[in-house]
Amino acid sequence: MGTEGWWLLLCLALSGAAVDTGEWAPAGAERQWRAVDVVLDCFLVEEGKHHGGFASEKNMVKALLVLKQVPVLDDGSLEGFTDFQVSTLSKDNPPVTFEASVSPVQIPHAEALLHADCSEKEVTCEISRYFLQARQEAAVETAAWFITNLQVSGGGPRVSILMKTLRDAENRAVMPPTLNLPLGPQGTVLTTVEFQVTTHTPSLIFQRGSSASLHCGFSMTPGLDLARVEWRLQHKGSGQLVYSWTTGQGQAKREGATLEPEQLLMAGDASLTLPSLTLKDEGTYICQITTSLYQAQQIIQLHVQASPKVRLGLANEALPPTLICNIVGYYPLDVTVTWTREEPGGAPVPVSDASFSSLRQSAEGTYSISSSLTAEPGSAGATYTCQVTHISLEEPIVTSAWAAPPEQRTVAFGVLFASTLFLLALLYLGLQRWKEPTALGVTTAETNLTPSCSLLATSSKVCQDS
């Protein structure tokens, strides 16, 4: 039976544990730790064939990674689960098999690795040789090192595992030729896990102005010392240091950037927190952990978004009216603007003859654009709607404006014009009445005129008897 059959038996054993929530434990079940073998189909990059470039099918051979006795939480569904047996492998062209003892290094996300096939996910697994930075002749003669990079599909966790194997100088097996390593009693390469670096957030999306936490964890075998933690940012061809930690001292190059408290850092948590995100924080973050002997890293993609603000109004008062939809302050670049026209009692109809302004970019990096449309209200008027769709929005932004028919616009303009003339006339008469007695040098109180008297320009009185 091959590895496919072994995984099929595992999925059948676990099938009764799947629930609607996506967890493997049934509701109310008590979960306990159990040590199991995690078996992963991998590719081994043969030494010396990729020349520092990317691996390809021509320099990769099939391999199998068996993480021995990894603790996972079990609700009872693993009762029929059996440990991996080399005898289950195909006798014809078997894969290069690495058996890795994980104690005492923790293997994070073991359940995600164990259940990946049953969850219809894939685990990308690549094994390659690892060379020490500072070589010691004795160590080189007695051991070899491999690094395994694991990635669960669908945005799942990513783990890098560094393995060490003993080399017997007198009994070297050749499988494949570039390995030149001894095989164990069952024909496998026996290794122990010395160091691992992981992240459960390989890709993140945050809104501008919010705070982001970039996860980076690690675990190492006793005897190794943590020497340095470094976070770097790569974006658009340039790189910069964000945060560095060395022997208890941290230094932030990006204002406000912090690591977890030192006690968590020493316990294996090197997560980075970035407050008040701007578009300049977007890019590829590299978390590099350096011990007294090894160095490994994880890569995290951080995407920063800015939601647009939309305003719909009149571009001018001419007939027919021109509507303009302003979309301001969005990021990233792609935005979709659609127009519809709806007459009273009718259904919205798409309008395709809108025009767009040139793209504008602010100093911060956000974009703005305008879309204009000549309204044709018809005899009954129409409602025009501008709808804006952007990746930062959960739902499109919709703004509408009513375009009145020409008759209503003419009547409304006439009423407005007449009202304006009336108000101006009242204002003029009021000013004249206020100025007239003042010019004659008398006030209403001083003349003491009765209603039957009038004031002449010569200041004489002409009164009529009642």
From TrEMBL:
Residues 1-18 form the signal peptide. It is a single-pass type I membrane protein. Residues 185-301, 308-399 form the Ig-like domain. PROSITE patterns: IG_LIKE, IG_MHC. The keyword Aminoacyl-tRNA synthetase does not apply. InterPro entries: Ig-like_dom (IPR007110), Ig-like_dom_sf (IPR036179), Ig-like_fold (IPR013783), Ig/MHC_CS (IPR003006), Ig_C1-set (IPR003597), Ig_sub (IPR003599), Ig_V-set (IPR013106), Immune_Resp_Modulators (IPR050380). Keywords: Cell membrane, Disulfide bond, Endoplasmic reticulum, Golgi apparatus, Immunity, Immunoglobulin domain, Membrane, Microsome, Repeat, Signal, Transmembrane, Transmembrane helix. GO terms for cellular component: endoplasmic reticulum membrane; Golgi membrane; plasma membrane. One of its GO terms (biological process) is negative regulation of antigen processing and presentation of peptide antigen via MHC class I. The keyword Signal applies. One of its GO terms (molecular function) is MHC class I protein complex binding. The chain crosses the membrane at residues 411-431. It is found in: Cell membrane; Endoplasmic reticulum membrane; Golgi apparatus membrane; Microsome membrane. Interacts with peptide-free HLA-A*02-B2M complexes or those loaded with low affinity peptides, likely facilitating peptide exchange onto higher affinity peptides. Interacts with MR1 in a ligand-independent way; this interaction may stabilize MR1 pool and facilitate ligand loading and dissociation. This is Tapasin-related protein. The lineage of its organism: Eukaryota, Metazoa, Chordata, Craniata, Vertebrata. The gene is TAPBPL.
